Amino acid sequence: MLRPGERVLVAVSGGKDSLALWDLLVALGYDADGLYLGLGIGDYSDHSGDAARSYAGERGRKLHEVDLAADYGYDIPGAAAATHRAPCGACGLSKRHLFNRVAIERGYDVVATGHNLDDEAAVLLGNVMRWEAGYLGRQHPVLPATLGFARKVKPLIRLGEREMAAYCVLEGIDYIVEECPMAAGNRHLGYKEVLNALEERSPGTKAAFVFGFLDRAQPHFAGAALEERETLGECAVCGSPTTGEVCAFCRLRERASDA
Amino acid sequence: MLRPGERVLVAVSGGKDSLALWDLLVALGYDADGLYLGLGIGDYSDHSGDAARSYAGERGRKLHEVDLAADYGYDIPGAAAATHRAPCGACGLSKRHLFNRVAIERGYDVVATGHNLDDEAAVLLGNVMRWEAGYLGRQHPVLPATLGFARKVKPLIRLGEREMAAYCVLEGIDYIVEECPMAAGNRHLGYKEVLNALEERSPGTKAAFVFGFLDRAQPHFAGAALEERETLGECAVCGSPTTGEVCAFCRLRERASDA
Do A131 and B220 make contact, defined as CB atoms within 8 angstroms? Predict the structure, then answer.
Protein backbone atom coordinates (compact mmCIF):
# COMPACT_ATOMS: atom_id res chain seq x y z
CA MET A 1 0.00 0.00 0.00
CA LEU A 2 2.61 2.52 1.12
CA ARG A 3 6.38 2.73 0.81
CA PRO A 4 8.64 4.61 3.27
CA GLY A 5 9.19 8.22 2.29
CA GLU A 6 6.05 8.54 0.17
CA ARG A 7 3.84 11.61 0.58
CA VAL A 8 0.37 10.50 1.66
CA LEU A 9 -2.83 12.55 1.39
CA VAL A 10 -5.45 11.35 3.89
CA ALA A 11 -9.09 12.01 2.99
CA VAL A 12 -10.37 13.45 6.29
CA SER A 13 -14.09 13.73 7.04
CA GLY A 14 -13.76 14.42 10.76
CA GLY A 15 -15.25 10.99 11.56
CA LYS A 16 -13.59 8.17 13.51
CA ASP A 17 -12.17 6.26 10.55
CA SER A 18 -10.36 9.06 8.79
CA LEU A 19 -8.94 10.62 11.96
CA ALA A 20 -7.78 7.23 13.25
CA LEU A 21 -6.19 6.51 9.87
CA TRP A 22 -4.33 9.81 9.88
CA ASP A 23 -3.20 9.20 13.46
CA LEU A 24 -1.99 5.67 12.66
CA LEU A 25 -0.09 6.71 9.54
CA VAL A 26 1.77 9.48 11.36
CA ALA A 27 2.50 7.12 14.28
CA LEU A 28 3.95 4.64 11.77
CA GLY A 29 6.28 7.36 10.45
CA TYR A 30 4.55 8.28 7.20
CA ASP A 31 4.59 11.82 5.83
CA ALA A 32 0.80 12.17 5.87
CA ASP A 33 -1.23 15.37 5.43
CA GLY A 34 -5.02 15.69 5.54
CA LEU A 35 -7.58 17.01 3.07
CA TYR A 36 -10.98 18.13 4.31
CA LEU A 37 -13.83 18.82 1.90
CA GLY A 38 -16.53 21.34 2.90
CA LEU A 39 -19.74 19.78 1.58
CA GLY A 40 -22.15 22.48 2.77
CA ILE A 41 -24.42 20.10 4.69
CA GLY A 42 -25.49 22.55 7.45
CA ASP A 43 -24.53 21.79 11.05
CA TYR A 44 -23.12 18.42 10.09
CA SER A 45 -20.49 20.04 7.89
CA ASP A 46 -19.72 22.70 10.51
CA HIS A 47 -19.15 20.07 13.19
CA SER A 48 -17.15 17.72 11.00
CA GLY A 49 -14.90 20.58 9.83
CA ASP A 50 -14.34 21.60 13.46
CA ALA A 51 -13.34 18.04 14.38
CA ALA A 52 -10.85 17.85 11.49
CA ARG A 53 -9.37 21.27 12.20
CA SER A 54 -9.03 20.79 15.93
CA TYR A 55 -7.35 17.38 15.46
CA ALA A 56 -4.88 18.91 12.99
CA GLY A 57 -4.28 21.97 15.20
CA GLU A 58 -3.74 20.05 18.44
CA ARG A 59 -1.31 17.62 16.85
CA GLY A 60 0.43 20.07 14.55
CA ARG A 61 -0.58 18.38 11.30
CA LYS A 62 -1.12 20.00 7.93
CA LEU A 63 -4.76 20.04 6.79
CA HIS A 64 -5.67 21.17 3.27
CA GLU A 65 -9.22 22.40 2.80
CA VAL A 66 -11.46 22.64 -0.24
CA ASP A 67 -14.88 24.21 0.11
CA LEU A 68 -17.38 23.16 -2.54
CA ALA A 69 -19.43 26.37 -2.29
CA ALA A 70 -16.54 28.84 -2.15
CA ASP A 71 -14.26 27.04 -4.60
CA TYR A 72 -16.70 25.41 -7.02
CA GLY A 73 -19.96 27.32 -6.64
CA TYR A 74 -22.20 24.51 -5.39
CA ASP A 75 -22.87 22.38 -2.33
CA ILE A 76 -24.25 18.86 -1.86
CA PRO A 77 -27.86 19.80 -0.99
CA GLY A 78 -27.89 22.06 -4.05
CA ALA A 79 -26.42 19.36 -6.27
CA ALA A 80 -29.07 16.88 -5.10
CA ALA A 81 -31.84 19.36 -5.86
CA ALA A 82 -30.40 20.30 -9.26
CA THR A 83 -29.88 16.70 -10.39
CA HIS A 84 -33.06 15.29 -8.83
CA ARG A 85 -30.92 12.40 -7.59
CA ALA A 86 -29.92 11.09 -4.15
CA PRO A 87 -27.31 13.41 -2.59
CA CYS A 88 -24.88 10.52 -1.92
CA GLY A 89 -24.13 10.17 -5.64
CA ALA A 90 -23.08 13.80 -6.03
CA CYS A 91 -21.13 13.63 -2.78
CA GLY A 92 -19.15 10.51 -3.74
CA LEU A 93 -18.42 11.91 -7.19
CA SER A 94 -17.20 15.23 -5.74
CA LYS A 95 -14.99 13.49 -3.19
CA ARG A 96 -13.39 11.08 -5.67
CA HIS A 97 -12.67 13.88 -8.11
CA LEU A 98 -11.28 16.39 -5.63
CA PHE A 99 -9.19 14.02 -3.52
CA ASN A 100 -7.54 12.86 -6.72
CA ARG A 101 -7.11 16.35 -8.13
CA VAL A 102 -5.52 17.78 -4.97
CA ALA A 103 -3.19 14.78 -4.72
CA ILE A 104 -2.02 15.21 -8.32
CA GLU A 105 -1.71 19.02 -8.16
CA ARG A 106 0.17 19.03 -4.88
CA GLY A 107 2.48 16.14 -5.66
CA TYR A 108 1.22 13.46 -3.25
CA ASP A 109 2.09 9.88 -4.18
CA VAL A 110 -1.04 8.29 -2.79
CA VAL A 111 -4.54 9.05 -1.45
CA ALA A 112 -5.47 7.07 1.68
CA THR A 113 -9.14 6.72 2.67
CA GLY A 114 -10.59 5.43 5.92
CA HIS A 115 -12.93 2.77 4.50
CA ASN A 116 -13.23 0.00 7.09
CA LEU A 117 -14.42 -3.58 6.75
CA ASP A 118 -18.06 -2.62 7.37
CA ASP A 119 -17.93 0.02 4.62
CA GLU A 120 -16.23 -2.27 2.14
CA ALA A 121 -18.64 -5.13 2.78
CA ALA A 122 -21.65 -2.84 2.28
CA VAL A 123 -20.26 -1.35 -0.94
CA LEU A 124 -19.44 -4.84 -2.18
CA LEU A 125 -22.94 -6.10 -1.41
CA GLY A 126 -24.42 -3.20 -3.38
CA ASN A 127 -22.12 -3.86 -6.33
CA VAL A 128 -22.88 -7.58 -6.22
CA MET A 129 -26.66 -7.16 -5.98
CA ARG A 130 -26.54 -5.39 -9.36
CA TRP A 131 -23.38 -7.16 -10.62
CA GLU A 132 -21.74 -3.87 -11.54
CA ALA A 133 -18.80 -5.39 -13.36
CA GLY A 134 -16.90 -2.09 -13.67
CA TYR A 135 -17.26 -1.23 -9.99
CA LEU A 136 -16.34 -4.79 -8.97
CA GLY A 137 -13.19 -4.52 -11.08
CA ARG A 138 -12.19 -1.31 -9.29
CA GLN A 139 -13.09 -2.48 -5.77
CA HIS A 140 -9.66 -3.23 -4.33
CA PRO A 141 -7.73 -1.88 -1.33
CA VAL A 142 -4.90 -0.77 -3.65
CA LEU A 143 -5.63 0.92 -6.98
CA PRO A 144 -2.34 1.63 -8.76
CA ALA A 145 -1.61 5.05 -10.21
CA THR A 146 -2.41 5.45 -13.91
CA LEU A 147 -2.29 8.52 -16.14
CA GLY A 148 -4.24 11.25 -14.31
CA PHE A 149 -4.97 9.09 -11.25
CA ALA A 150 -2.98 9.02 -8.01
CA ARG A 151 -2.61 5.64 -6.29
CA LYS A 152 -5.49 4.96 -3.87
CA VAL A 153 -5.25 2.79 -0.76
CA LYS A 154 -7.62 1.70 2.01
CA PRO A 155 -5.39 0.70 4.95
CA LEU A 156 -8.28 0.03 7.40
CA ILE A 157 -10.01 -2.59 5.28
CA ARG A 158 -9.38 -5.38 7.83
CA LEU A 159 -10.79 -3.43 10.80
CA GLY A 160 -14.41 -3.04 11.84
CA GLU A 161 -16.35 0.11 12.72
CA ARG A 162 -16.31 -0.66 16.42
CA GLU A 163 -12.56 -1.20 16.39
CA MET A 164 -12.05 2.24 14.84
CA ALA A 165 -14.30 3.86 17.43
CA ALA A 166 -12.39 2.06 20.20
CA TYR A 167 -9.06 3.26 18.77
CA CYS A 168 -10.25 6.89 18.85
CA VAL A 169 -11.45 6.57 22.44
CA LEU A 170 -8.15 5.03 23.55
CA GLU A 171 -6.07 7.65 21.71
CA GLY A 172 -8.21 10.57 22.88
CA ILE A 173 -9.25 11.58 19.37
CA ASP A 174 -12.40 13.75 19.29
CA TYR A 175 -14.36 12.80 16.20
CA ILE A 176 -17.79 13.70 14.92
CA VAL A 177 -20.18 10.98 16.09
CA GLU A 178 -23.29 12.10 14.22
CA GLU A 179 -23.96 10.50 10.85
CA CYS A 180 -24.51 12.59 7.75
CA PRO A 181 -28.21 13.61 7.80
CA MET A 182 -28.44 13.30 4.02
CA ALA A 183 -27.43 9.61 4.13
CA ALA A 184 -30.38 8.58 6.33
CA GLY A 185 -32.31 5.80 4.63
CA ASN A 186 -29.90 5.36 1.75
CA ARG A 187 -29.11 1.98 0.19
CA HIS A 188 -25.64 1.78 1.69
CA LEU A 189 -27.07 1.89 5.22
CA GLY A 190 -29.63 -0.74 4.21
CA TYR A 191 -26.80 -3.03 3.10
CA LYS A 192 -25.00 -2.39 6.39
CA GLU A 193 -28.10 -3.46 8.33
CA VAL A 194 -28.42 -6.63 6.28
CA LEU A 195 -24.75 -7.49 6.80
CA ASN A 196 -25.00 -6.81 10.53
CA ALA A 197 -27.89 -9.28 10.71
CA LEU A 198 -25.87 -11.93 8.82
CA GLU A 199 -22.77 -11.25 10.91
CA GLU A 200 -24.74 -11.74 14.10
CA ARG A 201 -25.98 -15.15 12.94
CA SER A 202 -22.60 -16.13 11.63
CA PRO A 203 -19.59 -14.17 12.93
CA GLY A 204 -16.88 -13.70 10.34
CA THR A 205 -19.38 -13.22 7.51
CA LYS A 206 -18.18 -9.74 6.49
CA ALA A 207 -14.50 -10.69 6.44
CA ALA A 208 -15.17 -13.88 4.47
CA PHE A 209 -17.29 -11.87 2.02
CA VAL A 210 -14.72 -9.12 1.39
CA PHE A 211 -11.54 -11.22 1.44
CA GLY A 212 -13.08 -14.12 -0.47
CA PHE A 213 -14.04 -11.58 -3.14
CA LEU A 214 -10.52 -10.19 -3.35
CA ASP A 215 -9.06 -13.69 -3.48
CA ARG A 216 -11.42 -15.53 -5.82
CA ALA A 217 -13.61 -13.08 -7.74
CA GLN A 218 -12.13 -9.59 -8.08
CA PRO A 219 -9.36 -10.78 -10.45
CA HIS A 220 -12.05 -11.90 -12.92
CA PHE A 221 -13.39 -8.33 -13.11
CA ALA A 222 -10.14 -6.37 -12.79
CA GLY A 223 -8.88 -6.74 -16.35
CA ALA A 224 -11.77 -4.98 -18.06
CA ALA A 225 -11.70 -2.16 -15.47
CA LEU A 226 -7.97 -1.56 -15.96
CA GLU A 227 -8.32 -1.62 -19.74
CA GLU A 228 -11.06 1.00 -19.50
CA ARG A 229 -8.80 3.21 -17.40
CA GLU A 230 -6.16 3.13 -20.11
CA THR A 231 -8.53 4.25 -22.85
CA LEU A 232 -9.69 7.42 -21.04
CA GLY A 233 -9.39 10.85 -22.66
CA GLU A 234 -9.01 14.27 -21.01
CA CYS A 235 -11.93 16.40 -19.83
CA ALA A 236 -12.26 19.46 -22.09
CA VAL A 237 -12.92 21.65 -19.02
CA CYS A 238 -10.56 20.44 -16.28
CA GLY A 239 -8.23 17.94 -17.94
CA SER A 240 -9.20 15.02 -15.67
CA PRO A 241 -9.46 11.51 -17.14
CA THR A 242 -12.93 10.82 -18.55
CA THR A 243 -14.76 8.52 -20.94
CA GLY A 244 -16.65 11.47 -22.46
CA GLU A 245 -15.97 15.01 -23.66
CA VAL A 246 -16.54 16.63 -20.26
CA CYS A 247 -15.99 14.67 -17.02
CA ALA A 248 -18.86 13.82 -14.64
CA PHE A 249 -17.56 16.25 -12.02
CA CYS A 250 -17.56 19.23 -14.40
CA ARG A 251 -21.01 18.28 -15.65
CA LEU A 252 -22.27 18.10 -12.07
CA ARG A 253 -20.65 21.43 -11.22
CA GLU A 254 -22.17 23.08 -14.29
CA ARG A 255 -25.63 21.81 -13.47
CA ALA A 256 -25.47 22.43 -9.71
CA SER A 257 -23.90 25.91 -9.82
CA ASP A 258 -26.47 27.10 -12.38
CA ALA A 259 -29.30 26.06 -10.10
CA MET B 1 -33.81 -26.28 -21.46
CA LEU B 2 -36.03 -28.93 -23.00
CA ARG B 3 -36.54 -30.25 -26.50
CA PRO B 4 -39.78 -31.81 -27.79
CA GLY B 5 -39.90 -35.57 -27.26
CA GLU B 6 -37.38 -35.66 -24.43
CA ARG B 7 -38.13 -37.72 -21.33
CA VAL B 8 -38.19 -35.45 -18.30
CA LEU B 9 -37.84 -36.54 -14.67
CA VAL B 10 -39.38 -33.97 -12.32
CA ALA B 11 -37.99 -33.85 -8.76
CA VAL B 12 -41.24 -33.80 -6.76
CA SER B 13 -41.31 -32.81 -3.09
CA GLY B 14 -45.07 -32.38 -2.78
CA GLY B 15 -44.65 -28.61 -2.40
CA LYS B 16 -46.07 -25.89 -4.64
CA ASP B 17 -43.05 -25.43 -6.88
CA SER B 18 -42.46 -29.03 -7.90
CA LEU B 19 -46.15 -29.86 -8.40
CA ALA B 20 -46.70 -26.68 -10.43
CA LEU B 21 -43.63 -27.49 -12.52
CA TRP B 22 -44.87 -31.01 -13.22
CA ASP B 23 -48.30 -29.66 -14.10
CA LEU B 24 -46.86 -27.03 -16.45
CA LEU B 25 -44.55 -29.44 -18.22
CA VAL B 26 -47.36 -31.92 -18.91
CA ALA B 27 -49.62 -29.06 -20.03
CA LEU B 28 -46.90 -27.98 -22.45
CA GLY B 29 -46.83 -31.50 -23.92
CA TYR B 30 -43.66 -32.87 -22.36
CA ASP B 31 -43.29 -36.53 -21.41
CA ALA B 32 -42.69 -35.79 -17.72
CA ASP B 33 -42.72 -38.31 -14.85
CA GLY B 34 -42.16 -37.53 -11.17
CA LEU B 35 -39.67 -38.81 -8.61
CA TYR B 36 -40.48 -38.53 -4.93
CA LEU B 37 -37.82 -39.13 -2.28
CA GLY B 38 -38.90 -40.37 1.18
CA LEU B 39 -36.63 -38.50 3.59
CA GLY B 40 -38.01 -39.95 6.84
CA ILE B 41 -38.77 -36.56 8.42
CA GLY B 42 -41.81 -37.66 10.48
CA ASP B 43 -45.21 -36.11 9.73
CA TYR B 44 -43.69 -33.71 7.22
CA SER B 45 -42.53 -36.57 5.02
CA ASP B 46 -45.84 -38.40 5.41
CA HIS B 47 -47.82 -35.34 4.33
CA SER B 48 -45.51 -34.40 1.46
CA GLY B 49 -45.59 -37.98 0.13
CA ASP B 50 -49.39 -37.95 0.32
CA ALA B 51 -49.52 -34.69 -1.67
CA ALA B 52 -47.21 -36.07 -4.37
CA ARG B 53 -49.08 -39.39 -4.62
CA SER B 54 -52.54 -37.89 -4.70
CA TYR B 55 -51.54 -35.38 -7.40
CA ALA B 56 -50.08 -38.22 -9.51
CA GLY B 57 -53.06 -40.49 -8.85
CA GLU B 58 -55.74 -37.91 -9.64
CA ARG B 59 -54.08 -36.81 -12.86
CA GLY B 60 -52.86 -40.25 -13.97
CA ARG B 61 -49.17 -39.43 -13.91
CA LYS B 62 -46.31 -41.79 -13.23
CA LEU B 63 -44.54 -41.19 -9.90
CA HIS B 64 -41.34 -43.06 -9.07
CA GLU B 65 -40.49 -43.34 -5.39
CA VAL B 66 -37.27 -43.91 -3.52
CA ASP B 67 -37.35 -44.30 0.24
CA LEU B 68 -34.07 -43.47 1.97
CA ALA B 69 -34.76 -45.75 4.95
CA ALA B 70 -36.11 -48.76 3.01
CA ASP B 71 -33.74 -48.50 0.04
CA TYR B 72 -30.56 -47.10 1.57
CA GLY B 73 -30.78 -47.84 5.30
CA TYR B 74 -30.79 -44.27 6.67
CA ASP B 75 -33.00 -41.22 6.94
CA ILE B 76 -32.27 -37.49 7.17
CA PRO B 77 -32.65 -37.10 10.96
CA GLY B 78 -30.34 -40.12 11.40
CA ALA B 79 -27.81 -38.71 8.92
CA ALA B 80 -27.76 -35.38 10.76
CA ALA B 81 -27.17 -37.12 14.08
CA ALA B 82 -24.46 -39.41 12.66
CA THR B 83 -22.55 -36.62 10.92
CA HIS B 84 -23.06 -33.98 13.64
CA ARG B 85 -23.88 -31.55 10.82
CA ALA B 86 -26.98 -29.58 9.82
CA PRO B 87 -29.58 -31.92 8.25
CA CYS B 88 -29.91 -29.75 5.12
CA GLY B 89 -26.45 -30.76 3.90
CA ALA B 90 -27.24 -34.49 4.04
CA CYS B 91 -30.65 -33.84 2.48
CA GLY B 92 -29.31 -31.84 -0.47
CA LEU B 93 -26.55 -34.38 -1.09
CA SER B 94 -29.02 -37.28 -1.04
CA LYS B 95 -31.41 -35.51 -3.40
CA ARG B 96 -28.74 -34.50 -5.93
CA HIS B 97 -27.31 -38.01 -5.98
CA LEU B 98 -30.57 -39.90 -6.25
CA PHE B 99 -32.36 -37.64 -8.74
CA ASN B 100 -29.35 -38.02 -10.99
CA ARG B 101 -29.01 -41.75 -10.44
CA VAL B 102 -32.68 -42.51 -11.15
CA ALA B 103 -32.57 -40.34 -14.29
CA ILE B 104 -29.51 -42.16 -15.63
CA GLU B 105 -30.72 -45.66 -14.70
CA ARG B 106 -34.20 -45.17 -16.13
CA GLY B 107 -33.15 -43.43 -19.30
CA TYR B 108 -34.47 -39.89 -18.69
CA ASP B 109 -32.83 -37.15 -20.73
CA VAL B 110 -33.12 -34.43 -18.15
CA VAL B 111 -33.91 -33.76 -14.47
CA ALA B 112 -36.16 -30.72 -13.89
CA THR B 113 -36.30 -29.13 -10.44
CA GLY B 114 -38.76 -26.55 -9.13
CA HIS B 115 -36.26 -23.91 -7.92
CA ASN B 116 -37.93 -20.52 -8.23
CA LEU B 117 -36.44 -17.02 -8.28
CA ASP B 118 -36.57 -16.72 -4.48
CA ASP B 119 -34.70 -20.01 -4.07
CA GLU B 120 -32.07 -19.15 -6.65
CA ALA B 121 -31.47 -15.69 -5.21
CA ALA B 122 -31.02 -17.13 -1.69
CA VAL B 123 -28.65 -19.86 -2.89
CA LEU B 124 -26.70 -17.28 -4.89
CA LEU B 125 -26.42 -14.96 -1.89
CA GLY B 126 -25.04 -17.82 0.20
CA ASN B 127 -22.53 -18.75 -2.48
CA VAL B 128 -21.51 -15.12 -2.94
CA MET B 129 -21.11 -14.42 0.79
CA ARG B 130 -18.41 -17.11 0.88
CA TRP B 131 -17.37 -16.73 -2.80
CA GLU B 132 -17.68 -20.45 -3.40
CA ALA B 133 -16.12 -20.42 -6.85
CA GLY B 134 -17.07 -24.03 -7.65
CA TYR B 135 -20.71 -23.58 -6.65
CA LEU B 136 -20.91 -20.27 -8.53
CA GLY B 137 -19.60 -22.01 -11.62
CA ARG B 138 -22.33 -24.65 -11.38
CA GLN B 139 -25.17 -22.26 -10.51
CA HIS B 140 -26.99 -22.05 -13.83
CA PRO B 141 -30.55 -22.88 -14.92
CA VAL B 142 -29.20 -25.36 -17.47
CA LEU B 143 -26.35 -27.73 -16.60
CA PRO B 144 -25.49 -29.82 -19.65
CA ALA B 145 -25.14 -33.60 -19.41
CA THR B 146 -21.60 -34.87 -18.93
CA LEU B 147 -20.30 -38.39 -18.30
CA GLY B 148 -22.37 -39.79 -15.41
CA PHE B 149 -24.57 -36.68 -15.09
CA ALA B 150 -28.00 -36.15 -16.64
CA ARG B 151 -28.82 -32.64 -17.87
CA LYS B 152 -30.38 -30.50 -15.13
CA VAL B 153 -32.79 -27.64 -15.70
CA LYS B 154 -34.68 -25.14 -13.52
CA PRO B 155 -37.62 -23.93 -15.63
CA LEU B 156 -39.19 -21.79 -12.86
CA ILE B 157 -36.17 -19.57 -12.26
CA ARG B 158 -37.98 -16.43 -13.48
CA LEU B 159 -41.02 -16.91 -11.22
CA GLY B 160 -41.41 -15.96 -7.58
CA GLU B 161 -42.68 -18.02 -4.65
CA ARG B 162 -45.98 -16.20 -4.54
CA GLU B 163 -46.54 -16.73 -8.26
CA MET B 164 -46.07 -20.49 -7.82
CA ALA B 165 -48.51 -20.57 -4.90
CA ALA B 166 -51.03 -18.59 -6.97
CA TYR B 167 -50.64 -21.04 -9.88
CA CYS B 168 -51.42 -23.99 -7.61
CA VAL B 169 -54.50 -22.28 -6.19
CA LEU B 170 -55.79 -21.43 -9.69
CA GLU B 171 -55.14 -24.94 -11.00
CA GLY B 172 -56.59 -26.66 -7.93
CA ILE B 173 -53.35 -28.38 -7.01
CA ASP B 174 -53.22 -29.53 -3.37
CA TYR B 175 -49.66 -29.08 -2.15
CA ILE B 176 -48.04 -29.37 1.24
CA VAL B 177 -47.97 -25.88 2.74
CA GLU B 178 -45.90 -26.64 5.82
CA GLU B 179 -42.18 -26.03 5.60
CA CYS B 180 -39.69 -28.74 6.45
CA PRO B 181 -39.28 -28.66 10.27
CA MET B 182 -35.58 -29.48 9.98
CA ALA B 183 -34.92 -26.37 7.89
CA ALA B 184 -36.16 -23.94 10.57
CA GLY B 185 -33.43 -21.40 11.34
CA ASN B 186 -31.07 -22.55 8.61
CA ARG B 187 -28.87 -20.18 6.63
CA HIS B 188 -30.91 -20.46 3.46
CA LEU B 189 -34.00 -19.09 5.22
CA GLY B 190 -31.85 -16.30 6.70
CA TYR B 191 -30.74 -15.32 3.19
CA LYS B 192 -34.37 -15.36 2.04
CA GLU B 193 -35.33 -12.95 4.84
CA VAL B 194 -32.49 -10.62 3.92
CA LEU B 195 -33.46 -10.65 0.25
CA ASN B 196 -37.12 -10.05 1.10
CA ALA B 197 -36.07 -6.96 3.06
CA LEU B 198 -33.97 -5.67 0.14
CA GLU B 199 -36.74 -6.47 -2.36
CA GLU B 200 -39.24 -4.50 -0.31
CA ARG B 201 -36.99 -1.41 -0.33
CA SER B 202 -36.15 -1.83 -3.98
CA PRO B 203 -38.50 -4.04 -6.05
CA GLY B 204 -36.70 -6.00 -8.75
CA THR B 205 -33.65 -6.64 -6.54
CA LYS B 206 -33.86 -10.45 -6.68
CA ALA B 207 -34.27 -10.59 -10.46
CA ALA B 208 -31.42 -8.10 -11.03
CA PHE B 209 -29.24 -10.14 -8.67
CA VAL B 210 -29.86 -13.54 -10.30
CA PHE B 211 -29.97 -12.46 -13.95
CA GLY B 212 -27.10 -9.98 -13.60
CA PHE B 213 -25.07 -12.87 -12.18
CA LEU B 214 -25.91 -15.15 -15.10
CA ASP B 215 -25.13 -12.39 -17.59
CA ARG B 216 -21.99 -10.80 -16.18
CA ALA B 217 -20.40 -13.04 -13.55
CA GLN B 218 -21.29 -16.72 -13.90
CA PRO B 219 -19.27 -17.13 -17.13
CA HIS B 220 -16.12 -16.14 -15.19
CA PHE B 221 -16.63 -19.10 -12.86
CA ALA B 222 -18.06 -21.67 -15.27
CA GLY B 223 -14.84 -22.77 -16.93
CA ALA B 224 -13.13 -24.12 -13.83
CA ALA B 225 -16.32 -25.91 -12.74
CA LEU B 226 -16.74 -27.62 -16.12
CA GLU B 227 -13.09 -28.63 -16.20
CA GLU B 228 -13.47 -30.20 -12.77
CA ARG B 229 -16.48 -32.17 -13.98
CA GLU B 230 -14.42 -33.66 -16.77
CA THR B 231 -11.65 -34.90 -14.48
CA LEU B 232 -13.96 -36.91 -12.19
CA GLY B 233 -13.39 -40.61 -11.56
CA GLU B 234 -15.92 -43.32 -10.66
CA CYS B 235 -17.02 -44.09 -7.11
CA ALA B 236 -15.60 -47.49 -6.06
CA VAL B 237 -18.96 -48.37 -4.43
CA CYS B 238 -21.70 -47.07 -6.75
CA GLY B 239 -19.92 -45.95 -9.91
CA SER B 240 -21.11 -42.32 -9.70
CA PRO B 241 -18.76 -39.51 -10.72
CA THR B 242 -16.58 -38.36 -7.81
CA THR B 243 -13.37 -36.50 -7.06
CA GLY B 244 -12.34 -39.13 -4.49
CA GLU B 245 -12.25 -42.91 -4.15
CA VAL B 246 -15.78 -43.20 -2.75
CA CYS B 247 -18.44 -40.57 -3.54
CA ALA B 248 -19.92 -38.28 -0.86
CA PHE B 249 -23.29 -40.06 -1.04
CA CYS B 250 -21.80 -43.50 -0.34
CA ARG B 251 -19.70 -42.07 2.49
CA LEU B 252 -22.81 -40.46 4.00
CA ARG B 253 -24.78 -43.68 3.60
CA GLU B 254 -22.02 -45.72 5.24
CA ARG B 255 -21.80 -43.36 8.19
CA ALA B 256 -25.54 -42.81 8.63
CA SER B 257 -26.65 -46.43 8.24
CA ASP B 258 -24.07 -47.61 10.81
CA ALA B 259 -25.40 -45.19 13.38
Answer: no
